[in-house]
Amino acid sequence: MDIIAEEISDNAEYRKTIKSLTLHRGLIVSKAASENDSVYRLYYDFSEPLDKLANHRLLAINRGEKEGFLSVKIDAPTEDIINYLYKCTTPKRGSLTTTYVRLAAEDAYKRLIAPSIANEIRAALTERAEEASIKVFKQNLSGLLMQPPIKGRVVLGFDPGYRTGCKIAAVDETGKVLDTGIVYCTLPNHDKDKAKKILKKLIEKHNIEVISIGNGTASKESEIFIAELLSELDRKVYYVMTNEAGASVYSASKLAAAEFPQYDVALRSAVSIARRLQDPLAELVKIDPQSIGVGQYQHDMNQKRLGEALGRVVEGCVNNVGVDLNTSSPSLLSYVAGISKTIAGNIITYREENGKFKSRSELLKVPKLGKKTFEQCAGFLRINDGNNYLDNTSVHPESYKAAETLIEKLGYSEKDVTDGNISDIKSRLKRYDLSELSSELDIGEITISDIADSLLKRGRDPREELPQPILRSDILSMEDLKPDMILTGTVRNVIDFGAFVDIGVHQDGLVHISNICDRYISHPGDVLSVGDIVKVRVLDIDVPKKRIALTMKEV
C-alpha cells in the first residue's frame, strides 16, 4: 500500500488538481496558540477563503505564527479531494484490489499530498504578498524622497527626548550647521522657561524661520512646547512635524561620524531632522532605504529582494531630480547612474582639491571616471554658473551641438535660455516639420522634444511642482477634534487597507480604502502617495485607543 500511496502522491496531474481545489475551496484558519493577549487578537479565531485572502492579513498571520501567538493551518476540502482521487485511481467496476487502492489514495492524500500542498500554497501566497508589499514600499519611498524641499530657509532641527532632553541644531539655507545645543522641556520637572530663553535667543541670533520637529518619542510634548513658544514671539516662525525614521540609524553610522566628527550621535540626529526639511532626497539617501520604514511588515520579507527594489527606487528618484555636482554629498552622487561609491569619493576629492567644477567635461579628469561612465552619468549632473549654460539642464553633452543649433533655429539666444524667456518654445517647434528637423540636426524626433523640455526646466527642481509641506504655528489635540471637521493633512504612509494622514494632532488618522474616493480602487496607492497634501473629514475619534477615522469623500 505504501508503494501505491507514493505513486499516487508523485502523480503531477493529481497534485495540480488537488492544489487548485485547495486554493479555490480551502480556508486559512488561525487560532490562539496561548491565552495571552497580543496584537494578533484579531486572528485568534479567524478563517478566510484562500483565494480571497488579503496580502496584509497573510503577512500578519505569518508573523503571529512565527512569534508563537497563532496556530495556523490550511483547511482543505478533504472529502472532495479524496473523492477525486477515488475516481482517478479506481475503475468503475469493483475488483479485489479496489478497497486497498482506495485506502492507499486516502493515505497518499492525508500523509503525503496534503502537507506538501499546504506548504506550497502558503509559500506561493507569501511570495505574492511580499511582492505586493515591496510594490507598496517602492511607491511610498518614492513619494517620501520626492517630497518638495523647503529651500532658502534657516531651519532649527528639534530632536525630541525625555530624560536626556531635546537636541537642537540650527542650519543655514545651504545646510551648514550654525549652532547646536540641548534643552529640557518635555517632563514636568524640566526648566521650560530656561528652554524658551535658549530657543528664543537662537531664533533671534540666526533668524530661524522654520522649526523641524522629529515625530518620534516625546514629539507630542515637544510640539505643544514649540507651539506655545511660537505664540510668544513677535515674529512669524512656523514648525513642521518631520518623519524622523532612520535618523538614529544615520546618526550612528560611519558616514555621519565622518561628516560630523565634532558632534555626538544625538546632535547629528538633530542636524539630519533639520536638513530633511530643506532637501528630503539629499538627506534620506544617506540612510539604508530599508531603515526608512514606509510600508508594512518589512522585516517579514526577503531582505535581499526588498533592498534591491528600494535601491532602484532611490536611484530613479536621484536621476529624475538631478544632482548639483558642486554641492552634492558622496551618498547622493553614488546613486547617479554609472557612479560607484569609489568614483563618488574621487569626485569629492577632486572638488576639494581643485575647487568647483566649471563644466561637465571636467569630470573626465576625475580618477577612474572614464568616457563610458561619463556617458552614463553626465546628463544627471548639474552645474550652476558654469562655463556652459547647458550644464544646468538634463541635455546630455553629446547633444549640446544639436541643442545650440535648435535654439538658434527657433530664434532664441543663450540669454533667452538663461533668463527663462523661452516659454513659447513648444509653439515655435510646431512651425517645423519634425522629420526634416530631425534629419537636419542628426538626432531623433523624441530627442528634439526632450531638449525642448529640458531647456524649459533649466535649473528647476521637478519636486517644486508638488504641494509644499504644511507649515504650522498652532496645535490641535485629539480632544479638539469633532466629527465632520474638515482638515488638511499630509499622507505619511500608504498600506493595503488605507492611508495614514498627519492632521496635526500627533496621532495620524486612518483613511480606509473604502473612504478614499467614490470609485472602486484596488489599492490606496492607485490614488495616493506619501507626501500628498489632502483634505479630510473626521468620521470618528476614539481617544482612549488613540484612533482617528477619516474620509476623503465629499470633502
Structural class by SSE content: alpha/beta
The count of strands amounts to 15
Q: Return the average pLDDT rounded to an integer.
A: 89
Number of helices: 20
Shape estimate: globular
Largest sheet, in brief, is: 5 strands, mixed
Radius of gyration: 30 Å
Terminal-residue CA separation: 69 Å
Q: What percent strand? A: 5-15%
Widest sheet: strand order? 6-5-4-7-8
Work out the helicity level: 40-55%
Give the low-confidence spans. Answer: none
Concise structural overview:
With 555 residues, the chain is an alpha/beta fold. It is 43% helix and 15% strand.
Which descriptors would you attach to this protein?
five-stranded mixed beta barrel; five-stranded mixed beta sheet; 15% strand; 555 residues; 20 helices; alpha/beta; globular
Walkthrough of the structure:
- It is built from 20 helices and 15 strands.
- It has 555 residues and is α/β, with parallel strands linked by helices.
- The strands form four sheets. It has a five-stranded mixed β-sheet, sandwiched between helices. Strands 11-12-13-15-14 form a five-stranded mixed beta barrel.
- Strand 4 and strand 5 (166-171) form a beta hairpin.
- Helix 1 runs parallel beside helix 5, helix 4 packs across helix 5 and helix 5 runs parallel beside helix 12 (303-321).
- The radius of gyration is 30 Å and the shape is globular.
- It starts with a helix and ends with a strand.
